[in-house]
Amino acid sequence: MPSQKPRPAARRAPRVVASGLAAKGRRREPSAKTKPVGVPEGFYRDLVWNLRNGVLAVTRDGRIAVMNDVAYRILGLLPQSTDIGLPFTQVLKERPDVSRIVAGAFDLSHLPNRAELRLKSTGKVIGYTLSQVKNPEGGITGATLFFKDLTRVEQLEERERLRDRLAALGEMAAAIAHEVKNPLAGIEVMAGILKRQLTESEDAQSILRDIIKEAKMANAIVLEVLDFVRPIRLQVERCALSDVLRDAISMAESHVPRGDVRIDVVLPEELAPIQGDPHQLRQLFTNLMTNAFEAMVGKGHVRVVAQQLPMEEEPAAADTQAVAMIQVEVFDNGPGVPADVMDRIFSPFFTTKPQGSGLGLAIVRKIVDAHDGRIDVSARAEGGTRFRVTLPVSGSHELFG
Ligand SMILES: Nc1ncnc2c1ncn2[C@@H]1O[C@H](COP(=O)(O)OP(=O)(O)OP(=O)(O)O)[C@@H](O)[C@H]1O
Ligand SMILES: [Mg+2]
After folding, report:
1. pLDDT tens digits for 26-70?
2. Which contiguous run of DSSP H or E holds residue 88?
3. What is the largest CA-CA distance in the chain?
4. Is any atom of ligand 1 closer than 6 Å to the C-beta of 385?
5. Angle, to 10 degrees, between the axis of helix 360-370 and the axis of helix 151-197?
6. What percent of the chain is predicted at pLDDT more than 90?
7. Would you give the DSSP letter of residue 394?
8. What is the DSSP letter of 256?
């Protein structure tokens, strides 16, 4: 098994090994003799350590030679001091998709440069380059996987796409509203006049009441659509999540009878207040809770769990400032979202409910985006659904429409 290089300091030492190749005098890392003047001892090790990309290198016999901390973090694995020298298939056994890519370095004739992969286990998207390590004679002595977390980039792109879709939708909705609103108002007014004139006929009164009611409903739908496509202007203030959630629960209860649904809210006492728009945040959690109540039809369990996430630099973000994030998970044990519609539920007007408008989750996403947050949904193994909302404690809020 290859030996480990001495580490200058525990915190800064990369998981790098001088592989067995060194013993054969074939290492391409400059030796003390050939090292260019001015490159200090340990420079190459520090270089790997300080890269903001994940680096994973394996020797020709399939053992881990280098795995930096970014690699562990992106792959969601815990660094073990014993990993160096172990077969990569063993270290990456919980990430078989990554293991398969690394194995390809020795089998494929053409290695991917700038490929992407969504990790099945964590849902993260990584962008990677796979290279072979060759000795001066051209013999393959190992392979390197160089990768970056693109999850945030993907989300930003998705947000861009949504923004474009909403802009197109907004124009269409405004045009429809323009065409439909006046005739609707006309129908309502004229039905009102008729109703006053035909006081004698009970049949006519009843039909006209229905006409007025339907016209009002159609008008309400037009207003709802217009409201949805209008850009959100956040009124940002410090808001306590406990208040937001309490209000959201009672608003959801006023929309759907809660019945025997039990609600547990788990909030750490020291949870930081969020810089956000309390009205919009209330709306966000009301919509999630309303969906949960509707899914469980009067019987079940909703659990809301909030926690502050450890500060994590987002390597793929445009600015790499570490941001404090709060995560709120809303679990229910209803029937769950059918797998074949899972990727459509955030789309405007997608609904499986006879009375639904399909705007609830589209609004949720819009509010999350306006707060610079993230949202995802997953099915729970034990049945039911989990929505996970991540919000920055203080975001660079913008107008989002
Ligand atoms: N907790 C959940 N459990 C099961 N399915 C869900 C859940 N939340 C959302 N869905 C599915 O996602 C669809 C879209 O939800 P969304 O809130 O956008 O619209 P809606 O609830 O159908 O209508 P609206 O919210 O406008 O009244 C729902 O019709 C439902 O099929
Ligand atoms: Mg809904």
Report:
1. 444 555 555 566 788 888 888 888 888 999 999 999 999 999 999
2. helix 88-91
3. 111
4. yes
5. 130
6. 52
7. B
8. S
